[in-house]
Structures are given as structure tokens and as C-alpha cells.
Amino acid sequence: MAVRKRDPEKTRTHLLQVGFQEIYQNGFQGVSVDQIVGKSSVTKGAFFHYFPTKSDLGYAIVDEFLREMILERWIRPLAAYPNPVQGILNRFKKNIVAWPEENLIRGCPLNNLSQEMSAVDPVFREKLQVVMNLWIDETEKYLKKAKTDGYLKKTVQTKQLAQFIVTLQEGTYAMAKTLGDRKVFDSLYGSLRAHLEILSSSPTRDDVRE
Amino acid sequence: MAVRKRDPEKTRTHLLQVGFQEIYQNGFQGVSVDQIVGKSSVTKGAFFHYFPTKSDLGYAIVDEFLREMILERWIRPLAAYPNPVQGILNRFKKNIVAWPEENLIRGCPLNNLSQEMSAVDPVFREKLQVVMNLWIDETEKYLKKAKTDGYLKKTVQTKQLAQFIVTLQEGTYAMAKTLGDRKVFDSLYGSLRAHLEILSSSPTRDDVRE
User: What ipTM score was computed for the predicted complex, to two decimals?
Assistant: First the structure.
């Protein structure tokens, strides 16, 4: 059965998905609207109907895709853990174990876009800051909860620890990308675990069961 | 007095310097040979005499500039410290205090190039890996010395710790770039210091005197 009616929302999402993949593989500045249109099922005219410029597509990817990706991958799963510190460690381990081999040298899409575009385009910078601050702030909420519930020592500065955790999470993907070697994942997980263990009031477990 | 003789080595270095600055400001894919030539004092013909392609210029920047920058900024100064752990902390603090405001949103040139180009170009990837591994290996040499000389606990795994330190150093510049906020420097320095303090056999000082 042929699709009779156009579905603008679906077309827009399709372009975001294709754009995300092309940018992830080639960098934002390394990809053209023609390339994205070529990989999509829409015309160039349709592209420009939804996104007046390539930058507008890029901004929407940050606002919608990357924001959602961070929440889904790093934040929402923490709600299932009585001890959020255990949750942070388990999610980190799960995410590095599940990270596809072909993405190893591609790294984290948020970090890529930030390192490539923050200095070049102030609108990108502002939008990427919103997502990064959201990641840090949401992590801190769980650290505060851990402190209140007696899992973290009372002396822990939750803002500082949240910045440290997110920096190490991002740094881990950046390092694995640069070295092209996933062995560094385990090494950095070990360091994060040792760091959090020192700040914890109760011991954490080294497993990925939930 | 006019320069009568061409100095090939000087011209090549001049092109490397201009290329480095242009790439640092615009990204590798965001800059053209015409732009680099336009900012330089040489002709396009001369450029192609030294570097057959823009990529050849980029590769030389990694092999020569970035390698030298890492050694000069992070490794060679450590020789002056009896306790290398103290040296690593002091250099980190010195480097973040001295980091120019205009470079804040530009981040680390090595990290930028790696995040932008490692997935796109295997020659870049290989060359960037050489520099990153050099940074980690040289850091580990000093950690081994610290362990031998009794500054680090005997249980410390120096390879793992070297990877952690370099990942956090790189991650710190990446995070300050994304957030556009140098306050995160002090926060992450504090976390690194706490981490190293735990692994040390003797206390470290929080100052930047040498």
C-alpha cells in the first residue's frame, strides 16, 4: 500500500536520523546538505522546507537527539537503583560493554560536535552547553540523593563530584576513540570505581546486574 | 634589509604555524588551503611545494607541533620535581591558571583534531595515537619513578593511573571548552588531587611553586 499522505513529523524525524548518522561519520563540517539528502528519501526542496540551513539541522540534532540520548543512556536508568553511586558505576560499565565496535573510533556524538563546533559557532556552543549542564545537573541530583540516603560521605561536594564523573565519562569515550582501543574502557572504569569507593559510606559491587 | 635568500626550513615552519592557528580556530575541515595561504606570506605554489595536500600539512602539525607541545607542556617539566606526583599536580594547576581566556572555548588542539579527524582519516588516527600514547607512556615513566622512590603506594597500577591522569587532563580542557567556563578547571583539579592523594604515600602540597 502506497503512502498517500505526507507525514511532516515523520519526514522531519527521518532527516534528523540521517543527518545524525552522516555527521557522526564525517563531522559536521565534513558533510554537505547534498550528502544528507542523497542518503535520505526526500528531495533537497523538502530538506530546506524543514531546515533552512545545514546548521538548523545540526541545532535540532543537539536539542532533540543528543539531549534525549544523554537522558536515556546516563540518567533515567539511575532511578532503578537504591544506591545511585552503584547505579552510576553499573551504567558506565553497561554502556562501555555494549558500545559497538564500529563506534569505537567515532566516539561520543556530543563530545565530537562540541570539540568540533563550540569554538566555531556560538549557537552550537550555547545548545551544547545546555545538554552538558543538564547531564551534570541530573547526575548531581542523584549524588545528593545518595548523600541524603547515607550512601555517600557527608563531606562529599556533589557539584564537584558530578563534574568529575561526567568529565571522566566523556573523557573515556574520547580516549578510546583516540587510541582506537577498548581496553582503556576497563582501565578507566577501574579508576572511577576506586574514586567513588573512597567517597562512599558503603561498598559498591563490581557487576552489571540491576 | 630585504631577505635575499629563501630559507626553506623557515618557510615550512611559518606554514606549519599559520596552519596550526587556522585549524585551531576553524577545525581542520573548516579551513581551506586558500585561507591558510591568505594568512601566510607565501604563494599557493610555495604551499604545495612544501605540502602536496592540506592533509600533509595536518599530518606534519601532529608529528611536529602537537608532539612537541605535549612534551613541553606536560612531560619535560616533571624532571624538576623530586616527587613526580607533586609535579603532575603542579603542572596541571600551572597550565590551567595560565590558559588564555581566548583559548577557553577552543580547547586542546590535540583533542580537537582527534575528535574531529580520527574517525574520518586513518592516517590522522595513527599519528594522533602515537602522540597520545607518548603522553601516557611518559607519564607512566614518572609514576613508576614515584613508586620506586616511595611517593606512591606499592599497590598502584602505574599504567592504569597514567591513563586516568591523561584522560582527566584532556577531559578537563574538553569540559571547559564545552561549558565555556574556567571554574570547572579548579573543580577538576580538586578531584585529581584528591585521587592522587589517596594513592600517595606522602602528602602533596596545593601550590604551584617549583
Answer: 0.90
